[in-house]
Amino acid sequence: MTTQVAAFSVGPIVGHCDRTSVRIFGRADIATALPEGKAMLGRIQWRVVAPAGQPAQPWGAVLPFRLNRNFDASGVVILKDLQPGTEYEFRAGWVVNEAAGDGSLSWGDVPAGRFRTAPAADEAPVSLLFGSCCYRFFDLGGRVSDDRADKTFKAMLAHQADYGEVDFTLLAGDQIYADPLNRLGAISAEEQYLSLYRRVFGQPHMQRMMATTPTYMILDDHEIEDNWPASASAADWVGKLPAALKAYQIYQASHSPAMPLDAAGQYLDADPDHLWYSFRRGCVDVFVMDVRTERQLARRTRDRMMISARQEQALTEWLLDGPERVKLIVSPVVVFPDQKRLFRRQDAWEGFVAQRARLLEVIRRHQLKRVAFISGDVHASLVAALHSRRRGEPQTIYNMVSSGLFWPTALLAFRWYGPMLQSSGRLATGGLWSRYRVQLLRGVYSRDAFARLDVTTEGFHYRLFDRRGDPLPDYDVQQSWLPLA
């Protein structure tokens, strides 16, 4: 008897992908049918993509994997022993009978996904798409009622056919809006967060993009509530936050390097004890910061912490491990430039100047010449440079921003970032004088957009595209790294 393999309702999502392995997430629409706990109901098979003009290779053996009712009927499978720099295709879904084997499966209309493993060469160039802040409208029935946000992902898919495939996509915060009307109507229960993720991540173009490009994610405030934790009540810390983080762990963190694996690297082994993570691909090292859940707010500026001391130490050690390599640091909130003094706020790094100064000093003191931050949050896109000197040698750090992927015209009043921005001058560091000078490269784009970043050991090229995928050449920035000491 043949068993039909059903498509996932969310996913497959291609997550962390290194030289020889990849993590793939899927969620089945079987929450009521799945037995309590875990069951081996997931199925996946894969093969190397044949060169053009050659016949397709046969599919490999089917690998069963666990779906977990306690994690919204989702699971993550790890494919191992892959070849570096190789393109694979796969098909993944779920069955109702754990005993269903290879020969009795019918894949029907389950769509195939794709990924390319990381190259073997440490100096290989890297290309990525990045963006943040994707707002969605919902109708009274809780369904997505406006597909303009999803069309952004359609444009990101089409972009790769016209401009070349990228190594990965980076979603730098506010993938969902748990508080679409700010605190009015904000959700707080676990099932509400899970339902929101199903609707948002189940949209067709977003789903297709994540099935064909490795995707890395990190949360920002709207995965919990606006400006978290500035307005958090005692009840929020024991109710809303655990619910939001459980849903985030399932849908965003589970397929990332933040989630620990067992000793053999075969399956997810435990809940993470932190949400920040790092990975390497080609010439680039990436550190993805958690700037939300470890914040320590304080009355005195010097006591405020955007990230924990543990994360700060991990970031410092990562910076100094291979200091000649390109270092991309993902901070969902902008590191620099600051806003003009009258408009400065306590939510971004300009409200945490003491810790920011410590991190910048590590880069300056060790003369790291290939460092850039990647950010979102502000519903605007820009590139800024931060100049300083060390023993007479010039030092430049960059902050590349792309936000939002979709922000409705009805909320145009919030697009005030550009006029409030300090486009040049000294960076605030908490003292009377700062050694850091800000320079805004090109201008500030305050409409929906996504960015493409092409990185080599020689420099980078930042390009901006509007929501429909049309290029915005007035905002292109192409820079060379300063020579290594």
From TrEMBL:
Signal peptide: none
Pfam families according to UniProt: PhoD (PF09423)
Lineage, opening ranks: Bacteria, Pseudomonadati, Pseudomonadota, Gammaproteobacteria, Oceanospirillales
PANTHER family (UniProt xref): ALKALINE PHOSPHATASE FAMILY PROTEIN (AFU_ORTHOLOGUE AFUA_5G03860), PHOSPHATASE, PUTATIVE (AFU_ORTHOLOGUE AFUA_6G08710)-RELATED
Species name: Alcanivorax quisquiliarum
InterPro entries: Metallo-depent_PP-like, PhoD-like_MPP, PhoD-like_sf, Phospholipid_Metab_Enz
Protein name: Alkaline phosphatase family protein
Domain PhoD-like phosphatase metallophosphatase: 153-389
